[in-house]
Amino acid sequence: MNDSIKSVVLTEEQIQERCKALGKQITEDYKGKTPICVGILKGSIMFMADLIKNIETHVEIDFMDVSSYHGGTESTGEVKILKDLSTSVDNRDVIIIEDILETGTTLNSIVDLLKYRNCNSIEIVTLLDKPMKRKVDIEAKYVGEKIPDEFVVGYGLDFAEKYRNLPYIGTLKPEIYQ
Fold first, then answer.
1. Which of the residues 28, 56, 74, 102 is marked catalytic?
2. Is omega for the bond preceding 42 within 30 degrees of 0, making it cis?
3. Is 28 annotated in the active site?
4. Where does the sequence pass through the membrane (predicted)?
5. What is the dihedral angle through the alpha carbons of 100, 104, 105, 106, rounded to the nearest 10 degrees?
6. How crowded is residue 9: how many other Cβ atoms within 10 Å of its Cβ?
7. What is the pLDDT of residues 72-125, one digit of tens each?
8. Do residues 152 and 128 make contact, with C-beta atoms less than 8 angstroms apart?
């Protein structure tokens, strides 16, 4: 696996530092509230687990499995909900937890759906942000790291369901996915 990595973008230690800093911010912003943290499967699972350990207020967790990639390296723009929430968000504060924010089409669809379901507030936390790839007007309130436009894997992020279990985030050698 490691032989497929061109360079390391975030080390395991750097990721944990980002999780602590983001957890501290979220703790301050949600004091006295019990937000629902909605992890977007499958990529956010490692980040979500480490992030919520650093949030020092009550939270509930739930998951959505939403896809717009369908096996490729770029979003198709077609968003499919594969697993919906099992918790009502009516009049609740929601924190969407995402591994990477690129085009924004998937998150924009999720935000629209949650607004329709009458949540009190919605904020987005993402470990990685690629603002140069944005196709819709959406931003995360909480961002771990802005990264350049390179294909990254590890720490939940995949290529064809592989590399998710790397403890760091790295750029994948182009010959692997081209």
1. 102
2. yes
3. no
4. none
5. 30
6. 22
7. 555 556 778 899 999 999 999 999 999 999 999 989 999 999 999 999 999 999
8. yes
